[in-house]
Design brief:
This protein is mainly beta and 178 residues long. The chain has helices at 2-22, 154-157; strands at 23-25, 29-36, 45-53, 59-65, 69-80, 83-89, 92-94, 99-102, 108-114, 123-130, 135-142. Strands 1, 2, 3, 4, 5, 6, 7, 8, 9, 10 and 11 form an eleven-stranded mixed beta sheet that branches. A hairpin with a 4-residue loop joins strand 10 and strand 11.
């Protein structure tokens, strides 16, 4: 009986660990699947996450802190006159009983002044602050975009050049053989 209780306790602890890396929340707001791309040289880092508002009132993400960067900001990307533009956003509203996805080519979190490069497989913490001073501490996994393996036959599929920070397809400037 003691062994069964110990095993059940271990299974519960493992389950809690798995859940805590998938999402974190304060009851009203949850952060699901936070992840970052590996950083390149001294360029800023970028973080993506899905934010869910379980309350009946809109909630705004107003601040981000992390021990791995001097500054963290919310940014958005938009296409203007055929050019992709990135702009800082003071706050990001999550609608009542809704969600907002911070993802490539849209809203995202920029990490400026990284204290060390973000390497694939690393993890770090980040604190999200919402209006009303509510906070959520999340664990961020550093991985390739979407966790895809770019080996073997996948290389043919991903032959197009992409911007390493935004993941956007870049126009090939090589003249065509025509």
């Amino acid at each position: 009986m003691t062994r069964l209780i110990a095993l059940m306790g271990m299974a519960f602890a493992i389950g809690v660990t798995v859940i805590s890396t998938a999402y974190a929340g304060n009851g009203d707001v949850e952060a699901h699947h936070p992840w970052a791309r590996p950083s390149i040289g001294n360029r800023p880092g970028v973080v993506y996450v899905r934010l869910y508002n379980k309350s009946g009132q809109p909630v705004s993400l107003t601040g981000i802190r992390t021990p791995i960067a001097k500054k963290a900001e919310i940014h958005t990307m938009s296409m203007e006159d055929g050019v992709m533009r990135m702009r800082r956003v003071e706050a990001l509203e999550i609608p009542a009983s809704g969600h907002v996805a911070l993802e490539p080519s849209g809203y995202h979190i920029m990490l400026f002044g990284l204290k060390k490069p973000l390497k694939k497989g690393a993890k770090f913490t980040m604190t999200l602050t919402f209006d009303g001073a509510d906070q959520i501490k999340v664990k961020v996994d550093v991985k390739k975009q979407g966790g895809m393996d770019h080996s073997g036959d996948m290389k043919k599929h991903h032959k197009q050049k992409r911007d390493p920070l935004s993941g956007l397809k870049l126009k090939d400037l090589t003249p065509s053989p025509d």
